[in-house]
Design brief:
By secondary structure, the chain is mainly alpha-helical. The protein is built from 4 helices and 3 strands; from the N terminus they run βααββαα. The protein starts with 5 loop residues before the first strand and ends with a helix.
Length: 78
């Protein structure tokens, strides 16, 4: 495991969401796992914590996950 990678449990703990939420966000392509360990554990970059916090805050402001995904995609493309 890379020193700069975190497992899903640590991501969920630091972002204050459930592991299922992290998996769901990954499935919806709101966040991206970087790789998996030989044992199949998802690994995430530390900035994923801030991404999840952004998603949760945007939801609190009334944005849907589809809208949030478009915002993230626009921010990453330019």
């Amino acid at each position: 495991m890379s020193e700069n990678s975190l497992q899903i449990g640590e991501i969920s703990k630091q972002a204050d969401v459930s592991v299922d939420t992290v998996r769901y966000y990954e499935k919806r392509k709101l966040i991206q796992s970087v790789s998996r360990t030989y044992g199949g554990f998802r690994l995430f970059k530390p900035h994923t914590i801030e991404q999840i916090k952004f998603i949760k805050q945007a939801q609190e402001f009334g944005f849907s996950l589809d809208e949030i995904r478009r915002i993230i995609a626009d921010a990453q493309s330019g």
